[in-house]
Request: fold
Amino acid sequence: MKLIFIFLLLCSFSGADGNVFICDSPNATAYHYKRDCRGLNNCKHEVKKTTVAEAEKIGLKLCGWED
Ligand SMILES: [Zn+2]
Reply:
């Protein structure tokens, strides 16, 4: 039972690696792995931190400028 708990804990930690940045604009189409991505430099709105799952849920795709 303890092992399962540790496993779940590790999973939630690795989930933090799935964080991405999005421009909080109605015209935003992409999410970004890097806060200083050139695609985000054009953002005139607030830059928000979210997860890949959340970003894709609202219809965003991975930014074309990412490596
Ligand atoms: Zn980007």
Remarks:
- The first helix runs from residue 2 to 15.
- Residues 32, 37, 39-40, 63, 65-66 surround zinc ion (CB under 6 Å).
- Residues 31 and 62 are 5 Å apart (CA to CA).
